[in-house]
Amino acid sequence: MEPLKGLGKADRERLSAVLRATKGTVSVAQAAEVLRLPTSPAAKILARWAKAGWLSRVRRGLYVPVPLESRTSDVPLEDAWVIAAQLYGPCYIGGWSAAEYWDLTEQIFRTVVVVTVQRPRDRNPTIKQTDFLLRSVQEKALFGLKSVWRGQVKVDVSDPTRTMLDMLSDPQLGGGIRSTVDMLKNYLKSEKKDLALLLEYASRLGNGAVFKRLGFLLEKFSPADQDAISQCRERLTTGNAKLDPALETDKLVTRWRLWVPQRWLEE
Q: Is 230 exposed, middle or buried (0-12, 13-18, 19+ CB in 10 A)?
């Protein structure tokens, strides 16, 4: 744990200028622009400020300011969404993290779900005491998003319908099929419900398993939505999918070309 150390007048003025010109994070390129220096000396200055405890290093070349009230630079991330946007952009906050934001769940998840066009090696990084779960998509899949303000920074988050689509496409983004279904039920009961948009998004995403899972779940938990159920039937693709790839499945529901655990048929 690095204790905070004093700065001279020149350094204080420089640091103040850099912090005024940046929003939430400080990169070498930003510091170089503000200080009108080449990147190499700007990087050395940031490293020196970090060593003195006024900045905290997130990764090479990227820092966050340390709150004045902190006695150490070893601080947790003030806003993980802002850091995710800086590290993994183009990206958006999705899965259970977006579901929490849209009040589709009362569960509290410690890990932040980030959907990115990047292909990071580490899909489960821990940064400054915050865990992340990363999923990669093609850039054309960046649709159904809302920009929200986090302090002075805009961050993209999947809208409620895109959030449901992603969890139906990959139930692990919802914490598994059980919690995904709970969120789907909340979605269906809320003013955010838009099954026509969900079907449109699903066609655009092009994952046939979504129609199989959604049709099966609507038939089971919301049978009144006959139009959406019929459209799912019309859009069934060939081959069989699993209700949740992480679960053992032993029964094939031929109507939906979907493998499900026996207990799901008994409930």
A: exposed
256: exposed, middle or buried (Cβ count in 10 Å: 0-12, 13-18, 19+): buried
**How many angstroms separate the CA atoms of 130 and 127, rounded?**
5
For the chain, domain boundaries: 9-65, 80-266
Q: Residues 27-74: pLDDT tens digits?
A: 899 899 999 999 898 999 988 888 887 888 888 888 888 876 555 555
Dist CA 263 CA 252 (whole Å): 12
Query: What confidence tier does 1 reach under pLDDT thresholds 50, 70, 90?
Result: very low
**Are the beta carbons of 93 and 132 closer than 8 angstroms?**
no
Give burial (CB, 10 Å; 0-12/13-18/19+) of 10: exposed
Give yes or no for a contact between 31 and 19, defined as CB atoms under 8 angstroms apart: no
Mean pLDDT on 213-236: 96
**Hey, CA dihedral for 180, 185, 186, 187, is it positive or negative?**
positive
Task: Report how far apart, in Å, the C-alpha atoms of 246 and of each of 107, 152, 177 are.
Answer: 20, 39, 9
Look up residue 261 and give its DSSP letter.
Answer: -
Q: What angle do CA 102, 154, 56 make, to 5 degrees?
A: 105
pLDDT band for 211, please (50, 70, 90 cuts): very high
Using a pLDDT cut of 90, give the percent of the chain over it. 63
DSSP character at residue 192: T
The maximal CA–CA distance of the chain, rounded, in angstroms, is 74
Structure tokens at 207: 């994952």
pTM of the model: 0.83
E strand or H helix at 159, and its extent?
none
Residue type, 240: N
Tell me what pLDDT residue 75 has: 59
The highest-level CATH class for domain 9-65 is: mainly alpha
